[in-house]
Design a protein that fits this description.
Layout lengths: L6 H6 L5 H7 L8 E2 L5 E2 L17 H10 L10 H4 L1 H39 L1 H9 L4 H32 L1 H12 L6 H4 L10 H27 L3 H7 L1
Antiparallel strand pairs: 1-2
């Protein structure tokens, strides 16, 4: 009895001794069987070998090494090919999730823009005073850009910290929510997994952080540019 964590895999795979499997498939030393192509297979043979790797990152290298052996009649099939439909569905979901995450970041950036526009409006008189005292447009631009950038960096750093803590403790969070609600939030019969997988990829985290910061900085430039180009006389007169 075993449990791999993938309900679909557990239902379709049985582990038995090699000798028992050879007798069952008529590949034992005392008998001759036939493979899927109808060719005779000598007794004591196997119909296939399955290689388990310590990490999925080794897949391409190991596959290339096996292909370089030029073993006659060998056919190499990796887990992505044998589970093509599932793999493509996961990749599509990841792309959609990245798009949704980008839209969420853009919405958050609009909140920063609105906050900065209100700030510029409230500080119109102060901007006019600074300009009449000799502050350059570049100085005003830097002041408001740093203000918006600080909001973006602080929010991004807090989001990364919360996200990492959530990923590292996702199973504990799931069990806690299930205990509070009294329902199963991740049924193996539906999702084919007995536990929530969460792997933190440093490269993807960096891409997400850089995307968030880039969008924030670009959106912060708009109100900062407006503040820098306020006419000081007009600003003081309007105030």
């Amino acid at each position: 009895m075993y449990e791999s964590g993938n309900n679909q895999y557990d239902k379709g795979v049985v582990f038995i001794p090699l000798e028992t499997a050879q007798i069952f498939y008529r590949l034992s030393p005392g008998a001759q069987g036939a493979d899927g192509g109808g060719q005779k297979i000598e007794g004591g043979a196997v119909s296939g070998l399955e290689v388990f790797l310590k990490s999925p990152s080794y897949l391409e290298q190991v596959k290339e090494d096996l292909l370089e052996k030029n073993i006659e009649g060998i056919k190499i099939l990796d887990w992505r090919q044998s589970n093509r439909a599932f793999f493509e569905a996961v990749m599509t979901e990841r792309n959609v999730m990245f798009l949704i995450l980008t839209l969420i970041i853009i919405i958050a950036a609009f909140n920063i823009i609105s906050s900065m526009v209100i700030l510029v409006k409230d500080k119109t008189r102060e901007i006019g005073i600074l300009r009449t005292m000799g502050a350059t447009r570049g100085a005003i631009l830097r002041i408001f850009f740093l203000t918006g950038a600080t909001l973006g960096v602080t929010g991004t750093a807090g989001g990364v910290l919360i996200g990492l803590l959530f990923c590292w403790n996702i199973e504990h969070i799931r069990h806690g929510l299930e205990a509070l609600s009294g329902t199963s939030l991740f049924s193996p019969e539906i999702y084919f997994l007995s536990k929530l997988p969460a792997i933190v990829e440093p490269g993807e985290v960096c891409i997400t952080v850089l995307t968030a910061l880039s969008i924030t900085f670009v959106f912060t430039l708009i109100p900062a540019w407006r503040a820098a180009h306020l006419n000081p006389i007009q600003a003081l007169r309007n105030e």
